[in-house]
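Appendix B, record 7
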Amino acid sequence: MNKKNSVFAARTLIALAVASAFPLAYAAEGTDAADQASSADSASKGQLETVIVTAQRRAENIKDVPMSIATLKGDKLDVLTSGAADIRFLAGRSPSVNVESDYGRTFPRFYIRGLGNTDFDLNASQPVGLVMDDIVQENAMLKGFPVFDVDQVEVLRGPQGTLFGRNSPAGVIKFDSAKPVFRQEGYLTLGIGNYSAKTAEGAFNIPVSDTVALRFSGTTQHRDNRVHNTNPNPNTGTKDFEGYGDNAFRLQALIQPNKDFSALLNYHERDYHGSATLFRANIIKKGTNDLVDGFDYASYPSDGVNYQRLSTKGGNIRLKYNLDDITLHSITGYETLKFNSRADVDGGYGASYAPPYGPGYIPFAVETADLLPNHKQFSQELRAESNYKGPLQWIGGLFFFNENIQIDSISFNTFAPGNPQNPQYAQQFQDAKSWAAFGSLNYTVSDQFKLRGGVRYTSDKKEFSAMRVEPPKIAGPFNINNTSHNLSWDLSGTYELDKTTNLFGRVATGYRAPSMQGRLNGLGDKPSFAGAEKALSFEAGIKQDLFEKRARLSASVFQYTVKDKQLTAGSGGINMNQLINADKVTGQGVEVDFQANLGSGFSATLGGSYNDTEIKDKNLFVQYCGNLGNTAPNPYGCTPTNAAGPFAGTSKIDGNPLPRAPKTQLNFTLKYSTEIGNGEFYAYTDWTYRSSYNFFLYEAPEYKAKPLAEGGARVGYKWSKYEVAAFARNITDKRVIIGAIDFDNLTGMLNEPRTIGATFKVNF
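Structure tokens (predicted):
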């Protein structure tokens, strides 16, 4: 066998081995197949366009980057965000990615390869970093900014501790907005849907001069309440649920006096108002994860006040200057927000000591509000990179981060004897400072073999205090000050097997700074603290162009270990969290991405992942729902199945998978397009599937999500500068419980129901 044939055979065997080991696990890496041709020539050949990413802070072909990456853009983004979908639309759209929330549209929680954080406190950190226009969005309230006029979304799986660094041991999700260009262009999209939904999105780009261009883009989204409150209380202002108004805009200015210097200025705002997540008491059938008989999605009784308000403002300045052999970057960002959310956490009306009550048994009334009256975030990055020709390339830089937070957590004892509206509250103050120095080297060993390595030193300092106020009594303040240091590194390589196939391998470390929480429920409570977690990850894979670039395959296997993993445990009987560290958490799995132009107007993507996670700590135990040291199980709570812990009402969690981490995720899209008249008709369908997962650290049948398959569709016609389309999301109207409250009774939350609508778009 000659060398050419042996290379071909090796390439084919690798592809077949991956496919046979995971036959249905594929996903859309790179652009959607709908965004195919980067030129008229490639379009005529039906080739997929070359995908350019900035995962390693340089513009590169995705095939040459030695890590697991997926991107979303173009038509696929338009389809997935149909009906004003919030950022949770990313769940399952890329291998190993999940997104969920206990706050609805305002507090998304991200998971990659099973690693995430279920904490609902307002200073909770996440092991998945979110970067918007090169600015890290640390607070979860910043991470829910609406997705509009976005050029590309990149999902970087595995630790990103070297070049991004800010609390990203699981990975990074990176959004890049469409930037100003030196030509006049724009678009306007109007939409309507069920539940009286109304949406508008648009962008207008105008060159002011030969050196200055402006781009304004914005969105407004509105939906009426879709759940009727059958037990309104005029004294507290209760009303119907799940309506909202969400408005956001972005103004950018590009100043480019010459080819060597550019300044990109960005200012953005968001204003959101709506109802908080609707918690529904006793909707889970005990001993199962089924909805109770006779459940009605469209109506629910509650006596609590329910609202949510969020406003964010931010700006950034990105400067770039090209010298002869070096490019200099300065990235300055500032974000601020205010948040106020109040919800009826007990999920019903009344209480056992204040009848009437329901639905089902309400042991005690719980209504709380969480506020961020003060939040400020400042970040500064200075970076230099080589731009000369040669086998050695490098990047080096400095990073500074400062965040100030005040959190007020209020409990309203609605039925407190003699004082029905006496609020009690806890206050938290956190000042987080961090600085880092980082660098990376790329070295071309040969035309086929390239190596990369990087290192980052990080210093984190947090000053935290919390106090509890029950007029006239005060507990605290309790102070926790911590300084931590870390050295993260990574080493990776790419080997070109032939012109169509690259093999890659990567070993990387990640780090998450210590965390503090002070949601104090009583005068005897104290804040909780979790030390820094550190991750070590290994992955290897293949990236391959097939059928003369009409198809693309990417596959990887990975294994990681996280030491001192930060976890969030429920209290067992009250609405608060407890931070803990597990000795170790492990994970391993497979991810495969595939996309293809099938011909005759058809294009498709297939994708999926398998993640096996495990908590390893024989001494770790947590309280479970509704049991505060009681020897007898709570008859209105869950039925835990783990081994009993050392104290009554506790369960051991050694050997359990991580919460909210489905083992299997699959996705599929299929598009058909054809010319009709003077335009293009298209039909697009997309589907996701995820297996079951635990809601919490312990296992119980009531708190195990059912497997879920959801589909969407969009049908439209484009002509000249116009487009009309009809869409549907969750077209089978599948209703399942996707989250729960870890105390009191079997209170749950549901997925989004079916939404349908139509849009009209004009380009100019």
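Remarks on this record: The helical segments are 3-21, 40-45, 74-80. Residues 1-44, 416-420 have pLDDT under 50 and may be disordered.
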